[in-house]
Amino acid sequence: MYKCSLERMSDKIRTFAKYGDAGHGGITRYSLSPEANMARAEFKKRMEAIGAKVECDDVACMYATIEGSDPNAKRIVMGSHCDSVKNGGNYDGILGVMTGMEVLETVVKENIPHKHPLTAMIWTNEEGSLYPPAMMVSGIICNDYLPPELAKNFKYENMMKSKPMDESEFANFGEALAASPYKGDKANRISPDKYCAMFEAHLEQGPILEDNGNEVGAVQLVMGMFNYRVRFHGFTAHAGTFPMAKRHDALYAAAAFLCEMHKRFDELNEGQDPEFVYTTGEIYVHPGIHTCINDEAEFSLDVRHPDPELRQKVMDILKEMAAEEWCKCTCDIEEQWVRDTVYFDKNLVGFVEESMEEMGVKWQKILSGAGHDAQFCAYMIPTTMLFARTKAGLSHCEDERVSDEDCTTVATATLNAVLKADKFYD
Amino acid sequence: MYKCSLERMSDKIRTFAKYGDAGHGGITRYSLSPEANMARAEFKKRMEAIGAKVECDDVACMYATIEGSDPNAKRIVMGSHCDSVKNGGNYDGILGVMTGMEVLETVVKENIPHKHPLTAMIWTNEEGSLYPPAMMVSGIICNDYLPPELAKNFKYENMMKSKPMDESEFANFGEALAASPYKGDKANRISPDKYCAMFEAHLEQGPILEDNGNEVGAVQLVMGMFNYRVRFHGFTAHAGTFPMAKRHDALYAAAAFLCEMHKRFDELNEGQDPEFVYTTGEIYVHPGIHTCINDEAEFSLDVRHPDPELRQKVMDILKEMAAEEWCKCTCDIEEQWVRDTVYFDKNLVGFVEESMEEMGVKWQKILSGAGHDAQFCAYMIPTTMLFARTKAGLSHCEDERVSDEDCTTVATATLNAVLKADKFYD
Questions:
Q1: Which of A160, B101, B174, B310 ranks highest by number of CB atoms within 10 Å?
Q2: Which of B208, B244, B281 comes nearest A293 by C-beta?
Q3: Is residue A1, in this structure, part of any structural domain at all?
Q4: What is the tens place of the pLDDT at every residue in A278-323?
Q5: pTM for this structure?
Q6: Last residue of a domain, one of A279, A310, A339
Q7: Distance (Å, rounded) from C-alpha A188 to C-alpha B94?
């Protein structure tokens, strides 16, 4: 049982929190921004300080590698991202990067024997906050291995044209990439030829570990999901001149649908399975003027659950409801995307669970409701994830918190799981 | 009984429809735009052709006047606006301008005796579509006569700074006005010193006349109204990681409130009084991302009814509901504005009703749910309005339609009411 250093981990947490510090507890650190470059420079400096070789690929992913005893063995990689959402926190992404760094530092400092080269990695542009979509670069790198309906959304040429969603000195992602000091060779990309396993440590971003009194979680899968647009069509008229009885108010229809949808979905989920989640995050109305009745209303619906049968039942309810009339308005629904559940590699999940058990920490099996680079990487090479307890389940906000102790615990669990994988793979 | 000319009215309708023609049945004719200037030039040309004297005031309102037999009598004015909303129709505003023109043309052509000078008028910037707010210039001109809580929203200095909401060559309303060829002298403004009565003909913008099989309506009042923002506060979390049972979803709260509000308001309005209308035209959510639960949701609420007691009861329900918890979210409400019911001048309303009755047309008493320049003018001089039947109640859209016959009928009713006022006033 090897252990990572709380002191070293704390120092990394405090240091990386400076790069993009928004002045009130969190950061804004868009991918390829000057702030992200500061974090990347820190990564490079610290990794070179322990003798790691730092390489970059053509989409600016960074790889810091220490050799193992077998010059022919494939690399085991620990990676996540260093970019954040706007006004995000100090853990989402960077925790997995710091974990990789901490594992390498521990291995070097404690001279831990290992056969495989070990790599700490930064995935570029996971959030997609400045240049959408999210998980852009893992979508590019793993493209040949993704199901076709996913792969088509992450074609290299299209991704290069992605326009900034906020202020930027570059017209698109391709230009930002061309100007990046961390753009390297395509030959350096993570691939099945050179890598045998990928671990991603992340904060949970939900309240389940905390509610159960557990410090860390062994992630089993990333839940399947579907995303729809639900639209209502009425007609517009003047707020002051058109009698209530004759109105076909699209926003009223959307509100009535939304309430009834909660009722029917919750009836389906009688047992209150906490893994079944659905969210209406966006809403749009037309004409959207306070003196007009809306003729159009539209909301997004995001539904997640590991079981495809339950997701199908939810979709059946949705289709049934869309065929009904809502406050004299018609309804139609349009699929935006559907993703299957991604199961993580059984061997790697087992190594993570054994490590947590041997460490004597409070842990549990857990599912991921959020998407991560590991989810795409899992189509390409054996992959798994570890979660750290998140204060109040808050994430993608400046109040995002993981204790230094829990960060160190997830790093230690990663280290020991990596050492098990090191023994397992040729 | 004098009658206006269907042929002349039809010609005006076709002609004015060209100025701002958007190419698919309607117009975009912002106030003080080149398109509005074409309409103003047409007005000037036609009015001068019948011997009217055309004057402009300092806020570009235009007045075309033919003298009466008494050189000391005050003017009787018929006016409305020639500006439209974006992609509006060929009747809103311009119908009242064409009515004034048609009345003057008929009086001149038929040599109808009258004591008072008669004026056809264009009010500047009623819609406020390019430079808000709506009814800007009547708000400026009638400012000294408005209740203080209304007057403060239309101060001359502030109005001049109004910034364009769409493309414009001018930085604000003041600059557009300074550049207008129709800017004249402040002394020419409509005022109680020089004017004894104002008539505004308008399309109904609702379906009531059509549903009742009536051609025209004698408007009694402009309904009082209040406008609120209704806000919900929950907290945000990730769509994939946060269990349903722990969510405080502000959009869900807004939807539940909206549905319950319809229920309680409709219970209050048991008798289905068609004059009671309420509208939720705008909705806003934060963060408004499909992968996030919303922590904030807000909608606008516009409530109209002539009776202040009923409006108070509605407000009481609203306050009662705001004090409750909605889907674990808190609610607060904020008043945007409150306007009392404006009753039109009893004598003038009577003249309109007598005229319609004498004409043998199908008419009714009607209320205005929409705001008009006449509503502000009524605080300053005796004022009333006439409504023309609107196809399907559609307005502020390119499908806005009034038959040429109904346009002519409302002009004839105006003519005869004006002649009654001409006899009534010294």
A1: B101
A2: B281
A3: no
A4: 999 999 999 998 889 999 999 999 999 999 999 999 999 999 999 9
A5: 0.89
A6: A339
A7: 70
Helix axes B250-268, B308-322, angle to 10 degrees: 150
- The verdict on a CB contact (< 8 Å) between B244 and A274 is yes
Find the helix or strand (DSSP H, E) in which B53 lies. strand B53-56
Q: How far is B222 from chain A (nearest CA, A)?
A: 10
For residue B321 the two structure tokens come to: 């509901």
Q: Is there a contact between B241 and A288 if contact means CB atoms under 8 Å apart?
A: no
3-state SS assignment for residue B324: coil
Bridge partners, residue A386, by sequence: A201, A218
Contact call for B237 and A394, based on CB within 8 A: yes
B184 neighbors B57 (Cβ within 8 angstroms) = yes
Domain that residue B137 falls in: 6-222+341-424
pLDDT in tens, B264-318: 999 998 877 889 999 999 999 999 988 899 999 999 999 999 999 999 999 999 9
How much is the CA Rg of chain B, to the nearest whole Å?
Answer: 23
Any A CB within 8 A of B270 CB = no
Inspect the interface and report whether the beta carbons of B292 and A283 lie closer than 8 Å: no
Beta strands at B75-81 and B118-123: parallel, antiparallel or unpaired: parallel
How far A227 CA lies from chain B's nearest CA (Å)? 9
Angle at A338 between CA A335 and CA A344, to 5 degrees: 170
Listed residues A339, A366, A397: the one ending a domain: A339
Question: Minimal CA–CA distance to A230: which of A369, A339, A336, A340?
Answer: A336
Q: Identify the three-state secondary structure at position A47.
A: helix
Contact A173, A157 (CB under 8 A): no
Asked if B294 is an interface residue toward chain A (Cβ–Cβ < 8 A), one would say yes
Confidence of residue A130 (pLDDT cuts 50, 70, 90): very high
Q: Is A82 buried (19+), middle (13-18) or exposed (0-12) by CB count in 10 A? A: buried
**Which 8-state DSSP code applies to residue A142?**
T
| CA A40 vs CA A97, A183, A185, B21: distances in Å | 10, 12, 17, 57
Which CATH number is B213's domain given?
A: 3.40.630.10
Read off the pLDDT of residues A334-366 as tens digits, 9 standing for 90 and up: 999 899 999 999 999 999 999 999 999 999 999
Are A246 and B207 an interchain contact pair (Cβ–Cβ within 8 Å)? yes
ipTM value:
0.89
From the candidates A290, A390, A396, which should be mutated to test the interface with B, based on the most B CB atoms within 10 A?
A290
Q: How far apart are CA A385 and CA A200, in angstroms?
A: 5
What is the CATH number for A253? Answer: 3.30.70.360
DSSP A250: H
Q: Which of B42, B40, B46, B62 is nearest to B103 (CA)?
A: B46
> What residue has token string 């961390």?
A182
User: Of A360, A256, A237, A198, which is closest to residue B370 (Cα–Cα)?
Assistant: A237
